[in-house]
Amino acid sequence: MIKLSPSILSADFVKLGEEIKILEKEGIKYIHIDVMDGMFVPNISIGMPVIKSIRQNTNMVLDSHFMIEKPERYIDKFIELGCDIINFHFEATDKHMEIINKVKNSNKKVGMTIKPNTSYEEILPYLQYLDLVLVMSVEPGFGGQKFIEDSLIKISAIRDYINKNDLKCELEVDGGIKLDNVEKVLEAGANVIVVGSDIFEKEDKATIINKYNEIFKNFR
User: Fold this and answer.
1) pTM tops 0.85, yes or no
2) DSSP letters spanning 96-110
3) Hey, what domains does the chain have and what are their CATH numbers?
4) Which residue among 30, 70, 115, 136 is least enclosed by CB atoms within 10 Å?
5) Catalytic residue list
């Protein structure tokens, strides 16, 4: 099943609660939360108080993407806050299995992300343990960037590996996805689609979401 995971990095934080309610009304199941520490990426974004507030106000799946150095330092806290998916960067730690096991033992889902310059082969040994793998199709740290076309090769290769090994790992893509290129991402094998500015910068968000859902129907 194809899932849309709107990234609130592009939302208007003055009316974030209203924006989330629009997503709920349109049947969105996932909400993508980017957490940046200003070290792993050159930007600072959503922190723990915001996640806590979001959790208290929605039952949507908190698809949490942690762009932070040594994420193992905060895993317990993110679990406590109610993140449903704890998604950390391969490049940010050397304690991959420690994090995976801790999240699994807490009955949460665990994901791993790779940057555009990281070979997909680096994460293949971990896919059997993951609930989700995220391919960044832009450099992490800022919204509104242009989709990197070479990402399609990486997405396709990971999808082939998942299918050949009969793994239950979702394949997510984040960065520069819009209505005019989402079909290519789906054709490559992604099934969780992160969209930020193409939804939140539009006045009529419901219409844009419906357009994505119409495209998704061709890939179910």
Assistant:
1) yes
2) HHHHHHHHHHTT-EE
3) 3-219 (3.20.20.70)
4) 70
5) 34, 174
